[in-house]
Amino acid sequence: MDGFELLDVDVGGGITLRAAKAGEGPPLLLLHGHPQTHVTWRKIAPELARTHTVIAADLRGYGDSSKPEGGENHKAYSKREMAKDQIALMRRFGFDRFAVVAHDRGARVAHRMALDFPDTVERVALFDIAPTATMYARTDKAFATRYFWWFFLIQRFPLPERMIGNDREYFLNEHISGQIKISGATEPAAFAEYLRCYTPQTIHAICEDYRAAATIDLEHDAADAEKRIKVPLLALWGGLGTVGALYDVLATWREKADDVRGRALPCGHTPQEECPRETLNEVLAFLA
Q: So what's the pLDDT on residue 4?
């Protein structure tokens, strides 16, 4: 993350988040997915920092952020709690209203943030996801085969943790290489950083994140079924990946939000790593 200052920020409740900060201008929060960290933004964040104050954060449970126990019903890893972390982080930097660009798990946190904090989230860009409840409700053999970890990681502790921990480098490599369609997009140095952070504690936190998605997050989504995202929403997805193949992505988000635009990009699951120039252009146009 060239030109970024690394900070460990206390956001309350015993949680510290690792964040990378650079630039001046309107505030912009970047949230990564699984199994990445804030480093996933390395190819576009420096350009975004030319016009914005960019904060790229590690979600709780990931990277160098705190990894609390999940607790009853995996509440600590509900997207509601993870969203509160990021709101508190941005307020620590003095920002009460900001834009969010988010990928994968981070995009699910951003979805919840836009629902729970509509006066705080100015606009939101979501990369390569359809809504969680939609994806679970429409599960079929194709989805379960392509996204098997949605059903593997939610199994009871410690089954997935022990199986992944047996050869974490192999699992991490298979997970990333299976989703990226542009060879070399995750270069060795980035993979080494992801592997450094892929500790037993992180693996457990990731499982808790997915367990929450299949339990308490669905409860929150059901309770808010009539709530809609009112701010502008940009959906980008990989035209060579699973989400674009199995869903009409814009239609799924128009079921949840009032102002939706977006398109497929020539890549797999991780646009910011696989086609950074196209991704950057879309994000800058949306923010403008």
A: 98
